């Protein structure tokens, strides 16, 4: 009998299967796949089901070329991954050489992307800066939109309408002072207010604004 282990423990250990010792909904006491909770016995019975077999044959017949293409892509992907793992230094050298050959083109692509997607570029830069400073957490464009809606489109400090002036995303507890990069540590300020706050401690900043004694 397999050793009892939870799914979280199996995922943490990088295991493909885990065993709880409890029966599944069909009464099988067997290992389960870590990726989808599915019981191995249920999976085995399902793949013997005539309906599943008929579906597989029909799909293969209708999508033969796609199946062959997918097989080639997977095979090549696995070969490349194995080569990179076996030759890390050579791979790093090839990557550096490729970057140097295409540096100008890549920089132009990045400039164009930043000009086309200014908000996403700012989010990417904030996440990159936080990661470089080993600050926990990330945030997305959806998080910023949610914060904007929560603040009703107004600056937290002065109350000005943000749509009428330039605004910036601020870390309430500055990253330089151990603040996280999560949504909970973000607020939106107009540019003058954000410049004034800078990297001040939030309590000190509140005192300067007269909100705390």
Given as residue ranges, the uncertain stretches (5+ residues, pLDDT < 50) are: none
Q: What name does the CATH topology of the largest domain carry?
A: DNA Binding (I), subunit A
Which structural class do you get from the secondary structure elements? mainly alpha
What topology, given as strand order, has the largest sheet? 1-2
Question: Average pLDDT value?
Answer: 88
The N- to C-terminal Cα distance equals: 66 Å
Under CATH at level 1, the class of the largest domain stands as: Mainly Alpha
The main pleated sheet reads as: 2 strands, antiparallel
H/E order of the elements?
A: HEEHHHHHHHEEHH
Known CATH architecture of the largest domain: Orthogonal Bundle
Strand content: 5-15%
| Approximate shape | extended
Helical fraction equals: 55-70%
How would you characterize this protein structure?
With 213 residues, the chain is mainly alpha-helical. The protein folds into three domains: 7-48, no CATH class; 64-101; 118-208, DNA Binding (I), subunit A (Orthogonal Bundle), CATH 1.10.30. Helix content is 55%, strand content 7%. The chain contains ten helices and four strands, in the order αββαααααααββαα. It has helices at residues 7-13, 40-47, 50-62, 64-86, 88-101, 103-116, 118-132, 141-150, 191-197, 202-208, and strands at 17-18, 32-33, 167-171, 186-190. A two-stranded antiparallel sheet has the order 1-2. The longest helix is centred in the middle third of the chain and has 23 residues, at 64-86. It is extended and about 70 Å long.
């Amino acid at each position: 009998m397999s050793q009892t282990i939870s799914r979280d423990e199996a995922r943490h250990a990088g295991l493909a299967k885990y065993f709880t010792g409890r029966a599944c909904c069909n009464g099988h006491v067997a290992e389960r796949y870590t990726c989808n909770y599915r019981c191995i016995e249920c999976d085995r019975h399902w793949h013997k089901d005539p309906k599943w077999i008929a579906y597989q044959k029909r799909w293969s017949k209708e999508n033969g070329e796609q199946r062959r293409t997918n097989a080639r892509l997977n095979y090549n992907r696995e070969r490349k991954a194995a080569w990179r793992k076996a030759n890390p230094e050579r791979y790093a050298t090839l990557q550096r050489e490729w970057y140097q050959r295409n540096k100008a083109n890549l920089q132009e692509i990045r400039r164009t992307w930043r000009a086309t997607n200014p908000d996403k570029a700012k989010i990417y830069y904030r996440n990159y800066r936080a990661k470089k400073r080993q600050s926990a957490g990330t945030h997305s464009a959806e998080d910023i939109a949610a914060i904007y809606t929560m603040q009703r489109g107004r600056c937290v400090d002065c109350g000005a309408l943000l749509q009428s002036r330039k605004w910036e995303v601020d870390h309430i507890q500055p990253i330089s002072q151990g603040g996280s990069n999560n949504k909970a540590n973000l607020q939106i300020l107009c540019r003058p207010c954000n410049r004034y706050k800078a990297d001040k401690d939030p309590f000190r900043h509140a005192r300067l604004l007269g909100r705390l004694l």
